[in-house]
Amino acid sequence: MSSKLKLAIGLALTTAVISGTSLFVSKIAVTIVKDPIVFTFIKNGVVAVFLIGLLIMSSRLQELKKLKKKDIVKLSAIGVIGGSLPFILFFTGLTMIPAVTAAFIHKTLFIWVALLAVPILKERIGLLQFVALAFLLGGNLVLFGIPKMTLGTGELLVIAATILWAIENIIAKKALVNISSPVVASARMVLGSLIIFGVILVQGKMSLMTSLTASQWGWTLLTSALLTGYVLTWYTALKHAPATLVASLLVPASLITNALSAIFLTHTFPSTQLLSGTLLALGIVLIISRAYKIAPKITPAELVPEEIN
Question: 44 — alpha (psi -120 to 50), left (phi > 0) or beta?
Fold first, then answer.
């Protein structure tokens, strides 16, 4: 296995840890801030400012001058489809449903990515990966509990956000062919934040931003730090590995969200968590085993898909 593929696997698993923690913290933060759109803008805006600073410090601003028109179109699409609308949908939905529920729905991302990556990116899913994906889905179903599944407004908003993020992943995989991951991440957060700010202006919520308490700012900044880690590790992993592989390794994040909820909120540890953890662990082992097995056979198109003119 190439060192870049190993790096991608490590970063994807790191993203899962960050994602699981972020969902738990964000549920608390968005409840404290109260308005999900204001919360989303401030959180994403802080990340956008940090990423701009990172581009300046790393001298990557020069890369922006070399972007072609089709690159700009892709980055713009990522900003709209991945950096604005789904955040509004997700965090609005998160105010209506438990964090664990949102985590489960978000972790179906690998299914939507697979449905898109196979025909569009020409990625291959073998029998071993199908089995692994079944373990991952089964682990989340056990963790979440099938009887608790409903399709209320909150759930539907999170599902819509997840599908949009899956579409973004496909576009990002194409964009990452000749654009660095920090630039793609910056485009997502900067453009997305500007669009969300426009929504705030239209809704007349500027006064809410200036009246936040120290506690509300503290929770928002904490989620911003987690989101920064998420986008940097995620896009770097996506650049160096197939989208289906990276998305699959994100699934165990729901176990982390559930564990944090059990420790700090419910103070109960149902036996289903052990079964779920076992299924998720088996799924991850199979996913990584398959990556090791087929690494020599992975085509350049799967790691770096051909450009679409």
Answer: alpha
Q: For the chain, how far is it from start to end, CA to CA, in angstroms?
A: 31
Residue whose pair of structure tokens reads 């991850």 in the numeric block: 284
Place of tokens 């819509």: 160
309: pLDDT strictly greater than 70 = no
Residue 178: phi and psi, rounded to 5, are: -135, 15
* CA distance linking residue 196 with residue 115, whole number of Å: 29
Report which of residues 157 and 302 the model is more confident about. 157
Query: Are the C-beta atoms of 127 and 291 separated by less than 8 Å?
Result: no
Q: Is the dihedral of CA 234, 171, 91, 39 positive or negative?
A: positive
Instruction: Please state the length of the chain.
Output: 309
Helix axes 99-106, 127-144, angle to 10 degrees: 170
Contacts of 281 (CB under 8 A, 6+ apart): 252
Q: Is the pLDDT of residue 147 over 50?
A: no
Report the alpha-carbon distance of residue 79 to residue 58 in Å, rounded. Answer: 22
Give per-residue pLDDT as tens, 105-146.
888 899 999 999 999 999 988 888 889 989 988 888 887 765
Tens digits of residue pLDDT in 13-46:
999 999 999 989 998 999 999 899 999 999 999 9
